[in-house]
């Protein structure tokens, strides 16, 4: 559970383009504490998680699921973390969020997770240009859907 939580925290932070120090300061927590959580160590309280969620522009939800209902978040490659901090990524996420009616902060985290999973299909480390091409493809599909979809079979 700790590693899944850590990956999710890192994905949300990367999606917001912020450093561990900035998020820790906004949450009123120490940098080592937040870094340890991101690395799957520590035993956070619900108060600490609530403060982190608020600092990351999201909210904490707690629930129970079967292990096979949701896959754990993917590990984010360093190049993808860097992409998540760019102005272009944040702009593209806003466009996708508007096109799909989703919350931009939540979408950014899910998008980074999905991109990390897609990279596993290639069997190689992707570059920033590769990430941008995948992001462009998602934008194209979401913002400009194919009007002739029904003819494809």
Please render the helix and strand layout as text:
Layout: H1 2-15, H2 20-27, H3 31-38, H4 46-55, H5 78-84, H6 87-100, H7 104-122, H8 128-143
Describe this protein's structure.
There is one protein chain. This protein is an all-alpha fold. The protein has two domains: 1-73, 434 Repressor (Amino-terminal Domain); 74-145, no CATH class. Helix content is 63%, strand content 0%. It contains eight helices and no strands. Helix 2 crosses helix 3, helix 2 (20-27) packs across helix 4 and helix 6 (87-100) packs parallel to helix 8 (128-143).
Into how many domains do the coordinates divide? 2
Order of helices and strands: HHHHHHHH
Oligomer: single chain
Query: Residue ranges: pLDDT <50 for 5 or more in a row?
Result: none
Give the count of helical stretches.
8
Structural class: mainly alpha
């Amino acid at each position: 559970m700790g590693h899944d939580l850590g990956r999710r925290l890192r994905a949300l932070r990367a999606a917001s383009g912020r450093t561990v120090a900035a998020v820790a300061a906004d949450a009123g927590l120490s940098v080592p504490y937040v870094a340890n959580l991101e690395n799957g160590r520590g035993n956070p309280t619900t108060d600490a998680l609530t403060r982190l969620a608020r600092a990351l522009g999201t909210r904490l939800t707690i629930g129970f699921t079967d292990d096979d209902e949701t896959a754990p978040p993917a590990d984010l490659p360093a190049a993808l973390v860097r992409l998540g901090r760019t102005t272009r990524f944040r702009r593209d996420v806003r466009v996708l969020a508007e096109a799909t009616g989703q919350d931009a902060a939540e979408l950014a985290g899910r998008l980074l997770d999905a991109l990390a999973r897609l990279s596993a299909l290639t069997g190689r480390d992707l570059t920033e240009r590769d990430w941008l091409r995948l992001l462009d493809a998602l934008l194209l599909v979401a913002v400009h859907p194919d009007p002739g979809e029904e003819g494809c079979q």
